[in-house]
Amino acid sequence: MKKLTSFLLILVIVAGALSACSEKPVLQTETVPESTTAPEKKQETPAEIKKQFKLADFRGEAYVTRDSKPVFKFSRGKTAAKNGSAIDENTAFCIASVTKQFTAAAILRLKEKGLLSLDDTIDLYFPDYKLGKKNTIHNLLAMRSGIPDYTNEEAELKKCGVKRNGKYKPNRSAVRKWILSQKLNFKPGKYYQYSNSNYILLSEIVEQVSGMNYGTYLRKQFFKPLEMTGTGFIESYDKKSRNFAKPLKESTRSELYYRGVSFGSGNIISTAADLAKWLDALDGGQVVNPESFKEMTSSYTTEGSMEFGYGYGLMIENADTYFHLGGISSYSSFVMVDKATKNHIIILSNTTSEYIKSLGVILDKELPTDKK
Q: Where are the domains of the chain?
């Protein structure tokens, strides 16, 4: 009972933060915790932590590495409600907005090659966009563009031509059409506002500058070199595979059926094992150079009411900790790097889990550290 009490205390504190939305400057489709800080307590054993995952009725995969070595693993559930196989670290899930750090890294790679500048105004890439001269690539990356979020506009997107089970290219074009027809919510740079629209546009910039399809570029630059063999995209992944974690609760609004609508902002499918490779490489300087990594992990959120910041495709807790949440219909994801504990944490679920972030906090704060 004493473990149940401590678990419920942490759950209440962090889940409360998950449900809290910031004021006017902040608009987001995935609720973001104000802080990853949890109460200090005696570290528990991995077995005790696994009991807490069961108490939260977690279904999916939790995986922690330290110095590139697995130090915690928890698997629970099936890849399908009927006749599914057991989930493990090689099971593929939709990772939703965890995708954004890949898009940001792709932009930074192109910047390193001198092919673009973060100060470029986006009319260079969308010449017909009347407001393009007012915004920069930096504003898109840092969620300070003022461009409205398309994800809350399902009816309007359908009017622009988005179709369920439609082809991804026409759906992408329809989403772009809607984004570029909208008025800005505020003067670019003035506020932080979480908007998936920013990363849709960034994925298009990646394609224009690289001369490759967004997916091809990510495979060439990241997935293949890092041997992320279980990683792909909603638009092309074999969703009939027994290795793919199908949604345990179907949704009529699922991005699985509206292909192309989350391109660059939430369309990657990956495994815990592959994401561990990614976090190791990102934190180890193999993804972008030191200057770009500093840009990626710096907070550009100046609003004093917020206890976290936003970098480039990453949420910034403090100088040691960066993370990101993901959530689309019937999927939840969370990744975090804590330099102080050396924990690289990945949690993936094929259900909508309101506790996924709090479970990540428990892992980071309570998992035993290396003995010296």
A: 2-366
CATH, domain 2-366, list 3.60.150.10, 3.40.50.2300, 1.10.3210.10, 3.40.710.10: 3.40.710.10
| pLDDT tens per residue across span 274-284 | 999 999 999 99
Yes or no: say if 368 and 43 are a contact pair by the CB < 8 Å rule.
Answer: yes
Residues 6+ apart with CB under 8 A from 306: 22, 26, 34, 192
**CA 314 vs CA 162, 265, 310: distances in Å:** 28, 12, 6
- Per-residue model confidence as pLDDT tens digits over 186-223: 999 999 999 999 999 999 999 999 999 999 999 999 99
CA distance 298 to 277: 22
Which helix (H) or strand (E) covers residue 321, if one does?
strand 321-328
Closest residue by Cα to residue 228 from 90, 105, 331: 90
Tokens 């960034």 appear where?
Answer: 202
Tokens at residue 307, please? 């206890």
Taking Cα atoms as reference points, which of 344, 348, 334 lies closest to residue 364?
344
How does DSSP assign 230-294, residue by residue?
T-EETTTS-TTSTTB---SS--TT-TTTSTTTTTTTT-EEEEHHHHHHHHHHHHTTSSS-HHHHH
Residues 1-13 have pLDDT tens digits of 444 334 333 433 3
Closest CA to 14 of 317, 266, 328: 317
Question: Encoding tokens for residue 186?
Answer: 């505020």
d(CA 325, CA 266): 11
Give the three-state DSSP class for 107. Answer: helix
* pTM confidence score: 0.88
Q: In angstroms, rounded to a whole number, what is the distance separating the alpha carbons of residues 253 and 83? A: 24
CA dihedral 169, 296, 40, 335 (to 10 degrees): 30
Helix, strand, or coil (residue 74): strand
Task: Tell me the C-alpha distance between 208 and 211, whole Å.
Answer: 5
